[in-house]
Specification:
Order of helices and strands: HHHHHEHEEEHHHEEEEEH
Distance between the termini: 19 Å
Number of domains: 2
CATH class of the largest domain: Alpha Beta
Bound molecules: zinc ion
Largest sheet: 5 strands, mixed
Number of strands: 9
Structural class: alpha+beta
Shape: globular
Length: 244
């Protein structure tokens, strides 16, 4: 579990906003639950990314900065006619901001996820493969040993209420710090040319011989001479398959 994922898990688990009746939850938009002094410092598209993601955190801010920097260097807007492809090298919070800002989404098929565990985001023009890569600098945030120690206590549920409040307040402060630092201190920008995979076409479905559910043909497996889906094909495995 990456740090960002751990934060996310605990934050959503700890946040009272996820429980109780609607009337007890307060404003439904995450950005409206922020303190006004925080919200007022944030550009509108950043607040919208917070609404999409569900909270403000340093991880989301990394993706926000990367999206803005790649879009500005490429000279494109969200929803521009120009077709864009996003490549993300992390599955942490920042991917939500990057998807929201650039319009490159998993569902549209123009977001490529590479499971490298790196805070690196690339935005590419499909027409010529030219793109911009932003890599967050490893020294963008000062290490904070006190905070790291406290984080362990917060994550394990040992922290006091005051410690927890202090920790989450620091979370917001670090997000703002990342959002407002000069671009050159945040990340390294390089222009790249990327060979993109061809656009995914439409595929026929086959019916899984085991569970009876439809599965797109390129994902079907053959077991005992019959087509089946991946989960059914691995049901008799020894459990070490990557997709088991
Ligand atoms: Zn987050
Ligand atoms: Zn099946």
């Amino acid at each position: 579990m990456s740090d960002a994922r751990a934060d996310e898990a605990t934050m959503s688990g700890a946040a009272p906003s996820g429980a109780g009746k609607a009337s007890e939850r307060g404003p439904s938009r995450a950005s409206e639950r922020l303190e006004p002094r925080v919200r007022d410092r944030m550009p509108a598209d950043f607040r919208e990314a917070v609404d999409f993601h569900g909270h403000l955190c340093p991880g989301l801010t990394i993706g926000y900065r990367a999206a803005r920097m790649t879009m500005e260097r490429l000279g494109v807007e969200r929803g521009a006619d120009e077709e864009l492809v996003g490549i993300v090298e992390t599955d942490a919070c920042g991917v939500d901001a990057f998807q929201y800002l650039t319009g490159c989404t998993l569902g549209k098929g123009n977001l490529i996820y590479r499971d490298y565990g790196k805070q690196v985001f690339t935005l590419v023009r499909r027409a010529d493969g030219r793109g911009v890569r932003v890599s967050m600098r490893s020294d963008a945030l000062e290490p904070d040993p006190e905070r790291t120690a406290l984080k362990t206590r917060v994550m394990s549920g040992e922290a006091t209420d005051e410690e927890r409040a202090w920790f989450w307040q620091g979370h917001v402060e670090r997000a703002l710090e990342l959002a407002e630092m000069p671009a050159g201190e945040f990340g390294t920008v390089t222009e790249v040319v990327v060979e993109l995979p061809p656009k995914a076409g439409a595929f026929d479905s086959v019916i899984c011989a085991v569970c009876g559910e439809a599965v797109m043909e390129p994902r079907a497996r053959v077991r005992d001479g019959e087509s089946c889906c991946i989960p059914c094909s691995t049901r008799y495995s020894r459990g070490w398959e990557i997709n088991a």
